[in-house]
């Protein structure tokens, strides 16, 4: 398995609705991108200070499956319309499970 | 389920052995900390530029299980001895699955 992890911090002008829309739009992607094996996104629970605000953890059979997701038009549309306008910081890793 | 995600960038003086030791020491923790339900750590695969270098994704039944892990002496010892000396950047999120 091949795992993609990305964490975000949002800009100060991002509203709660903007943040919830990111989660909603991403959660619809597994219906469209069949290479996704597991997909869990969520807002930081507020347990620790200094955290990022939002997480995406997505699993694929292999690197090729991840690349289909990364470059899929439905995913790019969510990134361009709903994520990029509000990104203050981004941290990502892909790794073999 | 409650998921903990943390990504690291290492300092320039961290050797490959230092980085591999972090992975090895962390992977031993599920034997000691019974609250861990799933635990996958790994080095960035090098697919994308600008990534962080190392990921930890850990799943627990609930927030209480995560807190046991967070504060467990065996975990704190790994952080103090093998992680903190080499951290250049850290990004974390905990969220409900």
TrEMBL record, chains A, B:
<dbReference type="InterPro" id="IPR011008">
    <property type="entry name" value="Dimeric_a/b-barrel"/>
</dbReference>
<protein>
    <recommendedName>
        <fullName>Stress-response A/B barrel domain-containing protein</fullName>
    </recommendedName>
</protein>
<comment type="subunit">
    <text>Homodimer.</text>
</comment>
<feature type="domain" description="Stress-response A/B barrel">
    <location>
        <begin position="2"/>
        <end position="95"/>
    </location>
</feature>
<dbReference type="Pfam" id="PF07876">
    <property type="entry name" value="Dabb"/>
</dbReference>
<dbReference type="InterPro" id="IPR013097">
    <property type="entry name" value="Dabb"/>
</dbReference>
<dbReference type="InterPro" id="IPR044662">
    <property type="entry name" value="HS1/DABB1-like"/>
</dbReference>
